[in-house]
Amino acid sequence: TEAPSPSSTPVESLPTPPVNTNGDDKDIADIVPPSSPLIKPVTDSQPTDFKKYAVVVAIDFGRWSLPFSVYAQSTTVNELVVGCSYAFAEDENIQDITKWHKYSGFYSKTPTLLLYKHKPLKVQDWGNGARLAMLKPNTKDSTLLKCFKLHLSDNQEYGELPPLTVGSETFDPIRPIADYLKLFHQNVMEELRKGFANNYDPERFRYCLTVPAIWSDRAKTSMREAAIRSGIISRDDPVERLILISEPEAAALYCEKRSESWNLQHGDKFMIVDAGGGTVDLIVYEIEHLDPKMPRTLKELTKGQGGLCGGAYIDENMRKLLRSKLKRYIKSIPACAFEMMMDEFVQTIKPEFNGKETQYLQLPASAQCDQTDESIGLENGILLLTADELNDRVFKPVINRVIKLIDEQLRQCQTYINAIFMVGGFGSSNYLYTLVEEAFRDRVTMIASPPRGELAVVHGAVMHALHPDKVTSKIARRTYGVMTRMKFEDGLDPEDSAIITVDGVKRCSTRFDVYLQKGDRIEVQDHPIRKNFWISYPANTETDLYAYDGDGPIPRQVTDPGVRKIADFPIEIPQLPGVRAGDRVDLQIDFVFASTELRIEVLVKGQRMSFTSKLDSEDA
């Protein structure tokens, strides 16, 4: 529910929304119907001074391992990695963190692994250190957690996930994410202190975290909470010290920066295909550059879409093929030997396969099966894999789903697309590029895989932290609104929603008052949606936000199927000199929908404050 109002006491104990202050003391239901002109864009918000942050640090948290893995242990398959890049606001030159805990080489990513000791319950090691520790004997009193970021996904996009159990305790996913980010951030800070970043107070560091496009608003709120618990930022820091960006939007900023190399100009349109290990996210942008003296900007042309058809599903298909071919021996093959076969596939066959050549897989000596079995193509311990079976059973089922997503995005766009940029670990696959190019070369002028495409997201996140206004407008992914009171209509409103307000009018207390409809274009800069309320000083208050994801008629009630409370914004009223307890205080609340993370801005007595959602919403 929204903030309690001192002006109207509902029957029994039903909560009520705040009171609108558009020139009178009437209930908001009397004067503001749905889609009212009073719900209007705001053009006078004060922009944030982003230049007060001297260093920006971007964290691409928990993307799937690249097919060109640098690690040879069995955990390479279906493992999440995290990368970090940074830049100084003064010169905007992006640099990567390449030195990681207990890894002797130089690489831009490190695995998201945590090793917990059971008694006492604590983190024993992390990253590559956790992997190395698990290779040692006597690890029965320890648990290795990986892929814990996936547990923030509310809608089971990744299938049934095992619980995050350590010893006798089951973790909320925020705990391991916060534990990992704390240690990861310490590593990053140690590396930054070795350079010029040591000249700046850490309070002048600004952070940008990437999140999957298919995550719910609640999952994004959980990610912010994990960052706070990790100590990267404090709960008292300004909201803008940590910003979130969706992975495909970050990739778009990276590609736009390099699009001049491909001669893309004002009005040209390009599609991002961000193909990682788990998901493939797609979205289309248009370049805006009317004034040559001003920086180029982007606007979304589609609301984007995604699918579970990343490179990890090729790995899973390969597992099924091996189990099928080796079914006669599978019970006698140790798990470690099977994982060694998978590692060889991931590192040698998967990145080089072109769809035409027969491949050969060396079985480890520990596989404990016949050295030669002509019925399955096994000769002298080498398993023959034909191009046809690899195409039909391993690669094509996944790649065809990517091609279908691209086709659907082109149809959704309903306009000519000048370029497709393929980024991400799987997006760097030569075979995927070849098949996409064959499928769409007659419909798209250029299909490209930018250099260092695996770093497109984290570098794009740095660019976003430096220039948050690069994308000027977006397409709403959901229908948003609040619960409000409106005059009761017999036959349409449920009787149990009825209340009698102080003016003696019977009202429905659960109406879904829509602020923004799915598919609407949202102007990013200074265009929140504003409403005016008042409260009784000095009580803190809150306001809720509801969402509907469907494409059909918008429900009438917040209690109707498909409508869920997705955000609960606590509003802390500051000390106001000269205002006495019980006095009426006017609030101006701006709902900001254009950012990756939902937030509100509240203006009270000349003081402007930003708030993000708290974690007890029902979004799932």
TrEMBL record:
SUPFAM superfamilies xrefs: Actin-like ATPase domain
Biased composition (Polar residues): 1-11
Signal peptide: none
Matches recorded under Gene3D superfamilies: 3.30.420.40, Actin, Chain A, domain 4
Domain of life: Eukaryota
Ranges for region Disordered: 1-28
Name this protein carries in UniProt: Actin-like ATPase domain-containing protein
Organism expressing this protein natively: Umbelopsis vinacea
